[in-house]
Amino acid sequence: MSNINIIIQGINGDLRIISISEEASIQKLKKRVKEAFNLPVDDDIRILYITRNLYEVDSHGREQFLKDYQIGDMALVFIFPRIP
Prior knowledge:
- By secondary structure, this protein is mainly β.
- The protein has one domain (3-81): Ubiquitin-like (UB roll) (Roll), CATH 3.10.20.
- 13% of the residues lie in helices and 33% in strands.
- The protein has one helix and five strands, in the order ββαβββ.
- It has one helix at 26-36, and strands spanning 3-9, 15-21, 45-49, 52-53, 75-81.
- The protein has a five-stranded mixed beta sheet, covered by helices on one side.
- A hairpin with a 2-residue loop joins β3 and β4 (52-53).
């Protein structure tokens, strides 16, 4: 299992690069993004890749992974606060 680097663009345009397992779940990605941007754990954020929202689980309740969205090395994803 190898790691990939993902570029994250934050709410204010700040960029961070995180290294994460290519087998990681979207839930793990969200955790790492919150750590990288010093966001509270209970903040609800949306992560977008290309034009797709990244969901932790699919409509059948199955956990989703980076590979389900074809996210590879040096992919650029964006974070947004979730509006209630």
